[in-house]
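Q: Hi! First time doing this. I have a protein sequence and I read that you can turn it into a structure. Is that right? Here it is:
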Amino acid sequence: MTKKYQVVGIGNAVSDVIATASDDFLTANGIEKGIMQLIDQDRAEVLYAAMSDRTETPGGSVANTIAGLGMLGVDTAFIGRVADDDLGQRYATVMTEEGTDFPNPPVEGSALPTSRSMIFVSPDGERSMNTYLGVSSDVGRADVSDDVTGNCDILFLEGYLFDKDPGKEAFYKAADTARGAGARAGISLSDPFCVDRHRDDFRKLVAGPLNYFLCNEEELKSLYQTDDLDAALEAGAADCALVVCTRSEDGVTIREGANRWDIPVTPVVPVDATGAGDQFAAGFLYGLVTGRDMETCGKMGTISAGEVISHIGPRPEKLIADLFQTAGLV
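A: Yes, that's right. Below is the predicted 3D structure, encoded as structure tokens:
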């Protein structure tokens, strides 16, 4: 039976606010370069006021992936929480306009505002994210509709939501429902610091109800507490049916059982690395849900990531389907 959705994502609904900044600016404002830091509301207001020439767009890691898939014509839905404020209403509207169902209405009367992340892009393209989670981090079981997660081909979860117990409960409910309906369920490990915080839980997830996981090299090594990439890949493949590891300029390595694919990339100097991993996931999952082989899935991921780092912002500006066609992948 054909499912309503090809891919459903669950994650933080965060409005990305992006501006360029020098390394001196980062130092002067106590911003640690190249990582995601959680901040409180007061700090969010200070950093927002310090930004000039801001670009604002609906974001959040898995939300960016789902939006990228929607732009590729995939039937998608995104489960997340926004407040019934201007930012939240805009978020829900834009996601829908871009082709992704946003089934949960903005939360009325929320004591917390819609989440936002202040992203400072350095001259080398590295991004430093300062995220105030607001209402988005309160995703729980009640937000996960069986009519959505039980009606998809692929479920994609965001590791960041594991910072609260309700998010963990939501994940297990969603994964159980999706797999019970014959879908493949997987997760993005999100960030090395996220892995450090939730290593035991992530190990249980990837070895339990999940069929696949996406990560970068640092996250994978952190998950299995080793500096040996091959050993980490071997451990991942023993735990989970499919492991997809991005390795920056060293390309992508995929393990499925005993099979391994190493897919090179063409190195480019990034304008803005924001969303690179998110759009890699979009390209890869597009290949997966449309029945491509693993090598093609990996190539689609690298093309999608390459496009998004060529400009400011976490979502594609060019038609990724045209880039796939140019590369001979479709």
